[in-house]
Amino acid sequence: MAAASIGVLGSAFNPPHNGHADVVTQALAEFDRVLLVPSYRHAFGKNMLPYHWRLQMVAALVENMADERVALFDIEESLAEAQGDPTRPVYTYDVLAETERQFPNGKIAFIVGPDNAATRTWQKFYRGDEILKRWCLWPAAERIPVRSSDIRAQAERGIFPSPAQCPPDVARLLRACLADPSHK
User: Before 15, cis peptide (omega within 30)?
Assistant: First the structure.
């Protein structure tokens, strides 16, 4: 039996949206499984909505996709805790190494959008050269131009995302997150 091909899509998912869903759809044509890995401590220092809310939103996106080959892969929090340093981010290298440990017979690839595939951005990745030697990069096309930052900015003004931007269950969770005093 051939090794399963596994695409890993790491992102802030801040919040997840239809652009992310489209990347997953593209990846499903290439991989047996696609794992969505929300960032716990972002390597580039992004300010993010609380992790537990983003996990719920990614779970809603996965459920909306209704494809058993797509899964939320919640590993970054445990990786962060194992590091013992509350300031150190969880890097893509760490995520891919742990994915390989958990799926030793899998053929692992890191899914990147055009933003992270750009040389100037990729050069910022911790151990980027080692990632390229050890695993594959799989670039996705941006076919649905939706930005999490735009969705958050709209939501902060009371304008919640349309179904063209993200699934209604994700929009509902975003509304609940922003109403939660702990998110501030």
Answer: yes
User: What's the pTM value of the predicted model, to 2 decimals?
Assistant: 0.94
Q: What sign has the CA pseudo-torsion 128, 130, 133, 136?
A: negative
| Beta carbons of 98 and 79 less than 8 angstroms apart | yes
Query: Residue 183, by phi and psi: left (phi above 0), alpha (psi -120 to 50) or beta?
Result: alpha
For residue 40, give both structure tokens: 């716990």
How far apart are the C-alpha atoms of 11 and 40, rounded to whole Å?
10
Distance of CA 144 to the CA centre of its chain: 16
Q: What is the pLDDT of residues 52-72, one digit of tens each?
A: 999 999 999 999 999 999 999
| Angstrom distance (rounded) from CA 98 to CA 132 | 16
Q: Who's near 115: CB < 8 A, 6+ residues apart?
A: 121
Q: Would you give the DSSP letter of residue 43?
A: T
